[in-house]
Amino acid sequence: MLLLAAGCFAALPAGAERLKDLASIQGVRQNQLIGYGLVVGLDGSGDQTTQTPFTVQSVVSMLQGMGINLPAGTTLQLKNVAAVMVTTSLPAFARPGQTLDITVSSMGNAKSLRGGTLLMTPLKGADGQVYAMAQGNVLVGGVGASANGSKAQINHLSVGRISAGATVERAVQTSMGEGGVVFLELNDTDFSTASRVVEAVNKRFGTDTAAAQDGRVIRVRTPVGSDERVAFLGALESLNVTPAQMSAKVILNARTGSVVMNQAVTLDNCAVSHGNLSVVINTEPVISQPAPLSGGQTVVAATSQIDIKKDPGQVLLLKGGTSLADVVKALNAIGATPQDLLAILQAMKAAGALRAELEII
């Protein structure tokens, strides 16, 4: 588990990275869109209308909007219609007429969306305004079949995509660059990296071009004209900056037993005692037969045998390590299972021997 590729090498100095990989420009972001719609044309794999009444209500409402009024008390038994949620993201600077890829997800009990067609669906933002309209044929990357109680399925059938299935109808206004200033936001708060970014920008574009607001936001002066500003931001994003080394951190996944460490993790001298405890329970059926002509009945019972094994623990001396490779070798020497290693790392942290922040996910 701990023999990762990164653990086989000593800690190396961080290399230069493009500024666009370390930070983003404030205001240049995506906006999530969502809509509720209907997929029609399914081959009998749609929602069961008795269990999903909202599908019937949606169909009735759609028909009324088209001038078709159903007689009172009409019960619809639909098999080729499914209620779906449509989601996508509106990229920055999107303009009316541009197309977006959309994801169509069943919200009822439809067996499959394969072969269906999404009817015109408005996609709204968090402010309730319609920003795009979606419609098209749903492409499902799976297939399934069932007969006489047997069922076979490959991939997921309740979610599909439509390439260029939505058309942007409204643009999102942005104030980026107004007043000749933009703000860079680092992906991770780090005062050392922010200082290095300011130094690199001022060295490339002149003194007082950039100034750090805090450990995450950097104020950058830009040309006023739109053409000059775009060219300036393109050169700014391509600027190479060497980020500072991140703080030491160990990520523990309690569900899978995974342990991930960065290069800054170090270990002080400590002693660890570890022993395994296992409990094995074997259950076997026991059949009791009555005597002949006794009129009794056969009784089936079960007997269980419990076996507890405890391996003797041993105290191991782990020498301090100044590199990730040394830490990996020391932890591998314990010989613990991944789940046991989670508890050992927590204990080492509490004892002050592990020089890193523990984060459990």
TrEMBL record:
Keywords: Bacterial flagellum, Cell projection, Cilium, Flagellum, Signal
Superkingdom of this protein's organism: Bacteria
GO cellular component, one term: outer membrane-bounded periplasmic space
Gene Ontology terms, MF aspect: structural molecule activity
Protein's cellular compartments: Bacterial flagellum basal body
InterPro entries referenced in this protein's UniProt entry, alphabetically: Flag_FlgI
GO biological process, any: bacterial-type flagellum-dependent cell motility
PANTHER family hit by this protein: FLAGELLAR P-RING PERIPLASMIC PROTEIN FLGI, FLAGELLAR P-RING PROTEIN
Biological function: Assembles around the rod to form the L-ring and probably protects the motor/basal body from shearing forces during rotation.
Subunit structure: The basal body constitutes a major portion of the flagellar organelle and consists of four rings (L,P,S, and M) mounted on a central rod.
The family this protein is said to belong to: Belongs to the FlgI family.
Protein name as catalogued: Flagellar P-ring protein
Lineage of the organism: Bacteria, Pseudomonadati, Pseudomonadota, Betaproteobacteria, Burkholderiales
Gene assigned in the entry: flgI
